[in-house]
Amino acid sequence: MKSYSRTELATFIVNRLQQEQHALKKKYQDTVDAVGHFYIDDVLPEEIAMACSSLFPKPEEMRQLKSLKEFKHVSAQMNKHDQLLEDVLYAFQDARVVALIKEITGLEGLLPDESLYAGGLSLMKKDNFLNPHLDNSHDSAMQKWRVLNLLFYISPDWQLPYGGHLELWPQGVKGDPILIESKFNRLVVMATHQRSWHSVNKVTVDKSRCCISNYYFSDTPLTTEDRTHVTLFKSRPEEKLRGIVLDVDAFLRTMIRKVFKKGIRKNPHY
Predict the structure, then answer these.
(1) Helix (H, G, I), strand (E, B), or coil: what is residue 53?
(2) Residue 164: closest CA among 135, 128, 139
(3) Nearest Cα residue to 142 out of 219, 215, 225, 222
(4) Which of 4, 36, 108, 175 has the most other CB atoms within 10 Å of its CB?
(5) Contacts of the segment 249-254: beta carbons below 8 A, 24+ positions apart
(6) Are 56 and 121 in contact (CB under 8 A)?
């Protein structure tokens, strides 16, 4: 495959977003009162997306996160991986891409996260999952508000029965989730605020669902309801006991954050 610069990769993304700009803007505005979101397929030329998939690190080359809250593999140290993955990731931070996302969402002052605080690469294999949660409200310095999550899926031929799909819970975890399939070469952009509960359902096949993720921040919160908080997890409606444990965990971590504003240890995913 021909090599492409980060600028060229960003140009592909810009051109694709421009093709669907009006429809994407309507989709976001139609959902903004719940969990604002849109998605678009065929974001990059297929050969580039396929190359990203083939070059994606193996689970053993990534950091495993396993608890009652989540089970997945992540990495933010991009110089450990192929240059193409880093270039594609940072292409979503190109000023032209950010400006287009601003036009589509109507959000001012969007700031991409160069440090990859919670962004980077994520992989979910069989039995991996991510429980309903609210993302940490701020960046690592507690200076800027997290407002958008960009998820770029690159697992070829990923199908609905495989699981590993994004779920949005606009009525909270007692309502019914909106399922967004993690289709190959699809970009999902979703708002992150005080009510944007989301999750990933369990992967059911012996395959890897791979994702390149970014966050955008802002000097101001997305809604007037937003308050400073750590990442908060909930159980699914049928997981009663897990729910009690996660509620206690959320309470304790919130109390710790009130005393130690930046936490008691540095987040290793940075």
Answers:
(1) helix
(2) 128
(3) 219
(4) 36
(5) 249/69, 254/229, 254/230
(6) yes
Could you tell me the two tokens for 44? Answer: 């990059």
DSSP assignment of 85-111 equals HHHHHHHTTSHHHHHHHHHHH---S-E
Identify whether the C-beta of residue 44 lies closer than 8 Å to the C-beta of residue 77: no
**Rounded Cα–Cα distance for residues 125 and 71 (Å):** 9
In tens digits, the chain (270 residues) has pLDDT values of: 889 999 999 999 999 999 999 999 999 999 999 999 999 999 999 999 999 999 999 999 999 999 999 999 999 999 999 999 999 999 999 999 999 999 999 999 999 999 998 899 999 999 999 999 999 999 988 899 999 999 999 999 999 999 999 999 999 888 899 999 999 999 999 999 999 999 999 999 999 999 999 999 999 999 999 989 888 888 887 776 676 767 667 666 566 555 555 544 555 545
Q: How many angstroms from the chain centroid is the CA of residue 236?
A: 19
Q: Which amino acid is at 118?
A: A
* Coil, strand or helix at 264: coil
Cα separation, 4 vs 174, whole angstroms: 46
Nearest to 139 by CA among 239, 270, 7, 3: 270
Residue 54 DSSP code: H
